[in-house]
Design brief:
6 helices, alpha/beta, homohexamer, five-stranded parallel sheet
Chain lengths: 163, 163, 163, 163, 163, 163
């Protein structure tokens, strides 16, 4: 069973990593799919986001990282995936993801969306919160995977100072 | 009883059409009111949005389309409407609309807000989702009224390509 | 347009009365329908609940009180009603009522459910809270219509003392 | 991958069946596990509930029906299951299931809970609503699998008439 | 500033204890108030619940345990408390507690309700879940304060076996 | 006990003022802290927002107004505050604030977040709604403190006309 875990990952957090690890235990193969969304301004380029994800998933044999800039339903067909994985942290996540799942089912009835929940201790972590804290020089070590923490700090401080 | 059904309709979806049909069965006359909001960037001009709505409501005798760029409470007074109709799809809709209903009651106590729900199959359809899917070249036929589907596809692809 | 406003009304609160007044302004005729639910233990008999509602709606010419012990969808057909009115106070109300509205639409597609909201100051008032407060001898004057306040206090204290 | 889909199934609805079909496409083997909860009064005995589920899943080769009266986390270990499947219909489902998933993870860290959503048209269907409608003699054909509809009607009417 | 932390505490969990510790840091004096609710069947008597709370708060100098069987608003006046403390774990908590806070404000405008949140790791813990897990012989050590864990297990297993 | 009440206050509403008054009754000293967020475009400068808050809290002896442009957790340490006060109006507020409270606890475990609720009649009032209504020339007198109502109207109309 091949599963796709799509997202912006701008940047990847320990919450994302938690979902990747869980999905990799359930499914034979997991593609973490980085959305290149032209209408959304990202703090990291899609190349940087792919690179950070590759670093944090190094050694996970059934996990691959790719970027895509098409409709998720089309990308799933192209890859031959039967499952889309989404992480749920909160109510507001749920409602949006629920609507997306129903829309994707309309567009590609052969792909099923499954929801996983990360641990309670990761429930409050989001990429935007990481960026907000790092933007003010706060400590993000507890929120992003250790092996990329320094890179993210450098990148986000640079991002802010160059504005 | 005259009812106003306000919204952005950027563009009109089958979910909106469902609410219009339901409202037209309950109230003697329904004005679908297209908000021209200067602070929000729309994909369709208000003229286009009015034109698309006129096309999908052609033949509905007690439904009219108008655009407005004032406070809803003032527009309701101007038209002599006693009822504002809002469609509810989800929790998050409810909370926002609930606050708007209470605010409008303060501004114009003579107008009552009534909420209708569209069919379950339309619950996940929103204008922004239609635009997102069309922007990636996806099939929006199930989400917008058939008679305007082609126009919307042409318009939204043009919008993307010209960016 | 004939509307039905169904509920337990065990007992009627100022929140219920608020919805009745709003519905009576929108619709030609409103039937307040007291559900006799054999599986739910009520504090007031259905006769008492009808009587209290008649008292608080005395003088409202287009409002009638009835009790019913059938499926709401069937009762609506029997009465020739085109509209079911429900009051929304909170999220949890919304979710339940939303599911009921979809079920009723399945059972009787000719009847539309419309939701009204009571004033913000009534949002926290429920029959069960009234009973809880009165059961401890608290003051319920702000929560039930004045003309029946004494009767409810006597009835609920008796209920508690006789347990 | 062996998955367990636990529930009361009192009785099984088309919403439950929808989740079973989806789970059976994703996982190698699915055990539908009927909870015998001594503290909850069920309308159907656990034997009846198992029998109805067997009937509606006849021909689904990787689906089995069992009943259990232990802790779900223990039952999963006993069966060697790595995954618990839960269906999500609404916010309130989500919150409760989310707390259960976190508790089960504490009790058995080797089992992952995955959430599936049924189709939008099944979102408003619950066992308790089926019982409520059948109790008033309403038509439940759209809410329960066709092959068991008659049995449920007979059983639920008998239940009501014998009260 | 004297604060009251009311609840059923049937039995006290690590989530409750977390809130007590936080409240005791903010307020000069905290009364943990055990509600004796005649209409709710408790697993532990109010004497047992008080005793368990005394045990887990032993050594906390500004914390006292009392039971009450009146309206919370009246109990607050009687004690001279200016603040009611409530713990929030989840949405559904929030909505109910919000309505209670507004009702209590009506009944006693001099008392303010403040909400505290327990740690994320305690978010899924409730007294009813503890009882459900213990009832099936599951391990509740992570969910209740260590010094009373054995007593609760003995008591809840006895409770189940005697049914 | 020193409490910080942080926010954008763009501009201050009667809902904010309600929370300030409640907090000032519970805590010895309250600092209303105006966030200067470089990434969010405000309608009022932080100087204007501070000035408006000073005007509406004139005479409240234990309330001070400051602006800050650092991480809230750091600002709390700098000021020696033990408590962060947040107002809750609605579900969506709650979810976001809950995540912020957990994040702040990670960043500064010595500071506790407490939530207060404003009166029901203020539940629908937000700064963005005030700006939207004022932008269309609507009457905002019921939504902002009287003593600054004129200034806000002048400022927001100028803002719109100059765009």
């Amino acid at each position: 069973m091949l599963a796709i875990y799509p997202g912006s990952f701008d940047p990847v957090t320990v919450g994302h990593l938690d979902i990747i690890i869980r999905a990799a235990k359930i499914f034979d193969r997991v593609i973490v799919a980085v959305l290149q969304n032209p209408s959304k301004i990202a703090s990291f380029t899609s190349e940087e986001r792919v690179m950070l994800l590759r670093r944090v998933t190094a050694g996970m044999e059934n996990v691959e990282i790719e970027s895509f800039h098409s409709l998720l339903a089309d990308f799933a067909i192209e890859k031959g995936a039967q499952v889309i994985v989404k992480g749920l942290r909160a109510m507001s996540d749920f409602e949006y993801e629920f609507q997306m799942a129903l829309a994707n089912r309309h567009l590609n009835p052969d792909v099923e969306t499954v929801f996983l929940t990360s641990g309670a201790e990761n429930m409050f972590i989001s990429s935007s919160m990481v960026k907000q804290i790092a933007g003010f020089g706060g400590n993000i070590d507890a929120f992003v995977p250790m092996c990329i923490s320094e890179d993210i700090k450098i990148r986000l401080n640079r991002g802010v100072s160059s504005k």
